[in-house]
């Protein structure tokens, strides 16, 4: 334990942050910059900073959001890649941790198992489990005025992994991307990647560089669009302007463009779809377009981005192929499809998705009464009804996660300062019975549909609505009143 950590031993803390990924380190930076008098700790279940970008190690791991919006407003992205690799993103997060001093306030290998709000004491009582050198688990107890959940929305312990008929017959390796084997050698081997989402379209071109052939086997197609690996405007601005100003202009450019194309896709779905498919056709050549023509409207599910059209290039060159069919069963040498066709493989990768969980599987209670996540209503996408002094970070589905994470961290700091000014101990939003429930996410993606009984609800009117709109959120969250008539203090 460092001297800096020892200084935090007296309880209670002002803020306890769960998770040292992009959101958690961003929250710590906001606290250091805007509430320097606040004492905080970060509990991280892993042994490293990075969250998602430390967990996933599969070939080609990258963001499908541009890095000028996935990065924070105060920390310019200087790498020349606009669509960045996982290791580069992890290094960026580590730099913020160093710059803000958050690195000294992290306790690694602490898995938070429960958190109970005590109204009498006006604080969270948190239990975490750590493993000592002998392998024995030990409990640690923390108390904090505020709880800041930055653990994301999917399970680190298991991905979504459907069981396929006759899997045991396959003589090769079956791998889930979330648990990629270290030093896996797939050079010269035949690979089948099951899936059509962001993970699959990343894996296929990455593995096709050395594999004998890679087949992307999908049940239904996704929308796939090309994005430039490098942002020419950003590079030009950085040559002629101060770095921070260039970063800010590029960030806003990308925010407006993303919002513009999203609105076009939602308001004119047929025209947008036609344009996307035309772009795919011009890049992929003589390939049956049924493999790239979804049966749903654009942005009913997340659109997959491929930098410089790498997936299309590999399909065109014959290094990769796309097959649209369902699985009848596994065989000794591969997969038999419902159509009767057989695909041969040495390695099968099940890029079948994530398993959504609630608050990192932390058991949350209020005065000893269990708090069921799916029975709560989300307030501005940041707090939960009838749960005091807790902030939850949940990013956008149609834009970069960090845009909402930064707004959330800034709001948390505003709320803390407001409470200090008025000597309040508790801030809570009470459920309004007149507000009608709606699904938390208006998305048809499998992982969202499977999580219908896990995610909270949103309401049919403000401030209970979850806006997938950064510009609207920036106005209401950053500049709206803290004491808005819905938030209650005592």
TrEMBL record:
Q: Which domain of life is it from?
A: Bacteria
Cite the GO molecular-function annotations of the record: flavin adenine dinucleotide binding; N,N-dimethylaniline monooxygenase activity; NADP binding
> InterPro entries this protein is in?
FAD-binding_MO (IPR051820), FAD/NAD-bd_sf (IPR036188), Flavin_mOase-like (IPR020946)
Q: Does the keyword NADP apply?
A: yes
Required co-factor? FAD
What are the protein's UniProt keywords?
Cell membrane, FAD, Flavoprotein, Membrane, Monooxygenase, NADP, Oxidoreductase
Q: Where in the cell is it found?
A: Cell membrane
An annotated GO cellular component: plasma membrane
Name the protein family. Answer: Belongs to the FAD-binding monooxygenase family.
Q: Quote the protein name from its UniProt record.
A: FAD-containing monooxygenase EthA
